[in-house]
Amino acid sequence: MVISMMKYDFDRDIKRKKRKKLYIRIIIWMVEIVAVIALAYAIINVALEKTTMLGESMEITLQDEDKIVINKLAYKFRDPKRYDIIVFKQSGNEHSYYNIKRVIGLPGERVKILDGVVYVNGEALEEPMVVDPIRIPGLADEEFTLDEDEFFVLGDNRNNSEDSRFANIGNVVKDDIIGKAWIRLNPFGIVNKINMYSKSVEENVEGEGKTSGE
């Protein structure tokens, strides 16, 4: 009687196990990539939003049609500061377009516009940027006090801006604030952070003695 002996192919078994491990690694790697993409997408949608500046009310800081990235988490744990540029909706209008203005008056402060100058708590506001004297004080013609959740906002282009001086905008409540105007997207993919001030008073004084070559 002849007994045939079969040699077991250990190499093939090892190769099979290696392939199995490789497949598992690939699957894990793909799951991790999908998870990272999903997380990044969620963070971007929760934390950031893009909008477009409409009009000339924030010149020279922002120009008409500037693409703006909003930091929607900026005021989740703190209130806006004076001179922050905020993005907000008109109170009571969920479907209104976004407004972009600069914070001037803070909750609890007294605000008035007299002879083209903003007064806060009875003192003329020393603004760190160059602005034209205000021709129309609007609702701020008489002194008023902001509520605990209200902010008084103005456009940098003071005489070409609908802002808290007018009833259709009014004082901005914190719940209507979408976030902080954070980044400007320029053509060709250039990104730059939005400056808090359009131009300092010192720069303007230094430039008064200069003439252009045009």
The count of DSSP E runs of length 2 or more, i.e. the number of strands, is 12
End-to-end Cα distance, whole Å, is 112 Å
Counting structural domains, the number is 2
Shape: elongated
Mean pLDDT, as a whole number?
A: 84
CATH superfamily of the largest domain: Umud Fragment, subunit A
How much of the residues is beta strand, in percent? 15-25%
Structural class: alpha+beta
Brief synopsis:
This protein has 214 residues and is of the alpha+beta class. It is built from two helices and twelve strands; from the N terminus they run αββββββββββββα.
Please tell me about this protein's structure.
- Its main location: membrane.
- It is found in: Cell membrane; Membrane.
- Mean pLDDT is 84; it is low at 199-214.
- Strands 1, 2, 3, 4, 9, 10, 11 and 12 form an 8-stranded antiparallel sheet that branches. Strands 7-6-5-8 form a 4-stranded antiparallel sheet, with no helix packed on it.
- A hairpin with a 2-residue loop joins strand 5 (110-114) and strand 6.
- The relative contact order is 0.16.
- With 214 residues, the chain is an alpha+beta fold.
- It folds into 2 domains: 10-49; 53-198, Umud Fragment, subunit A (Ribbon).
- It has helices at residues 10-47, 201-207; strands spanning 48-52, 67-71, 85-88, 99-105, 110-114, 117-120, 123-124, 144-145, 150-154, 172-173, 177-185, 191-193.
- The protein is elongated and about 90 Å long.
- The longest helix has 38 residues, at 10-47.
